[in-house]
Automatic annotation (TrEMBL):
Known role: Possible subunit of a heme lyase.
Membrane-spanning parts: 101-122
Species per Swiss-Prot/TrEMBL record: Parasulfitobacter algicola
CcmH/CycL/Ccl2/NrfF N-terminal domain span: 6-146
Keyword list, A-Z: Cytochrome c-type biogenesis, Heme, Iron, Membrane, Metal-binding, Signal, Transmembrane, Transmembrane helix
Protein name: Cytochrome c-type biogenesis protein
PANTHER family associated with the record: CYTOCHROME C-TYPE BIOGENESIS PROTEIN CCMH
Family named by the database record: Belongs to the CcmH/CycL/Ccl2/NrfF family.
UniProt feature coiled coil, ranges: none
Signal peptide: 1-17
Amino acid sequence: MARLLLILCLIAAPVFAVQPDEVLSDPVLEERARALSDDLRCLVCRNENIDESNADLARDLRILVRERLVAGDSDEQVMDFVVNRYGEYVLLRPTMTGSNMILWVSGPIMLLFALIIAFVYLRGRQTETSEASLNEDEKKRLAELLKD
């Protein structure tokens, strides 16, 4: 029974939320719509694209993308329209321009800053421990303690 369940899980195809009434009759336009939908985030589900989401807003976005394609818009025009309407948050892969550049660059800069601080701190500790050696009285006392 467990093997059958495992086999069924392995061969199960991914289920998309696209409803049959949303699918375009032109296969080329439908393929373009699916490609565009892969890059658009469901604003309700956060990290799902609109093809995988069952939310009403995702359905509205899928229909909007298909309407724009049927109207003759290019892929870039459709994406620009959706971004202008819903903001750049709707993109699953945000651009590296404008204020987003700060977000893209700040992570590596903070990591580099932390590594420099750690290096300076550890370097300072190393010099402190090398200077702190035992005097003669302490060496004798240590030798006595180790004999016991």
